[in-house]
Amino acid sequence: MRLKILLIFCGLSMVAACGKSTEPTESATQNAEKKPEAQAPAVNKTDGPRKLDIVLDSQPDDVKARYQFRHPNETLTFFGIEPGMTVVEALPGGGWYTKILLPLLGEEGTLVGANYDYEVWPKFGFFNDETLAKMKTWTNDWPNEVAGWGIEGTAPVKAYELSSLPAELEGTADAVLFIRALHNLARFNVDGGYLDSALATTYKVLKPGGIVGIVQHEARENMPDQWAGGQNGYLKKSFVIAKMQEAGFELIGESAMNENPLDKPTESDVVWRLPPGLYTSQDNPELREKLRKLGESNRMTLKFKKPE
Q1: What is the pLDDT confidence band of residue 4, given thresholds at 50, 70 and 90?
Q2: DSSP-derived secondary structure for the chain
Q3: CATH number of 44-261+298-305
Q4: Residues 121-150: what's their mean pLDDT?
Q5: Which range, of 23-32, 165-174, 220-229, averages the lowest pLDDT?
Q6: Res. 295 pLDDT band, cuts 50 70 90
Q7: pLDDT above 70 covers what percent of the chain?
Q8: Which of 206, 286, 299, 300 has the smallest C-beta neighbourhood within 10 Å, fewest atoms?
Q9: Distance (Å, rounded) from C-alpha 195 to C-alpha 116?
Q10: Domain locations in the chain as residue ranges
């Protein structure tokens, strides 16, 4: 039986001080007394790659365990995400990337969470009333959830649905990230134009020259289009590029960093059979271990630009 499951729920201060002294002067004593206050926001005062290294090193072990498959350092560097930027993250879900972006962007940046439009969620057919109710109030609840994580020195956050980003945000974003977030927009596009709407909104919200970073489960080009329409989690690279160019974006780069040649799905497979979900092997330990060894999905990594 085919399993239709969507994996949805799919700072640090690091300082070092050393020195040597003999008799402390009054000035030195005053400086020493100010040290804790000056050092507290060290991550925020660290720019570029070094700050990303610090943020990634601060993540818990279960997050770090995914680095070998998700390559967050290489991915965010490839997309050019830097402290102080305004970034829109589509479908933040449980916050795996959000918890990296918040301290990376820092207090001078802004993170905008953009969830699926509410009317998308009932279309899946398997969410209960409680989950649907949470999706209905998500834009109000998410900033409070983020605040509850207790991450220090982070970017302020805003929350909207993908097709309803307000006019005040138009032309303000440095980057929009679709990380494993396009397949369901594509899946329901015929039924509601959700992918087209999301890309049109993305174009509006970006500054001229702004970046769209995409990491998406990738179907091989020889797979049937009907199978690779998003309902199984996979999309073809040719389809994604065509839709982005149709929306007015320029492809300026692609990377193989998130590819996994071991992921070779058949027409009877869904992406959620793989880690971390492993949903199709709950009662089959042998299959579960086999799939675990395959790792996470084969993914395209594409970088687009809004023309300047």
Answers
A1: very low
A2: ---------------------SSPPHHHHHHHHHHHHHHTTTTTT--HHHHHHHHHHTS-HHHHTTHHHH-HHHHHHHHT--TT-EEEEE--TT-TTHHHHHHHH-TTSEEEEEEPPGGGGGGGS---HHHHHHHHTHHHHHHHHHHHT--SSPPPEEEEEGGG--GGGTT-EEEEEEES-SHHHHHTHHHH-HHHHHHHHHHHHEEEEEEEEEEEEEE-TTS-TTTTBSTTS-EEHHHHHHHHHHTT-EEEEEE-TT--TT----TT--GGGSTTT-GGGTT-HHHHHHHHHH-S--EEEEEEE---
A3: 3.40.50.150
A4: 97
A5: 23-32
A6: very high
A7: 85
A8: 286
A9: 10
A10: 44-261+298-305
Q: Mean pLDDT over residues 15-33, rounded?
A: 37
Q: Count Cβ atoms below 10 Å from residue 267 Cβ, excluding itself.
A: 11
Q: Of the candidates 205, 214, 209, 218, which has an alpha carbon nearest to the alpha carbon of residue 177?
A: 214
Structure token digits, residue 124:
């899946």
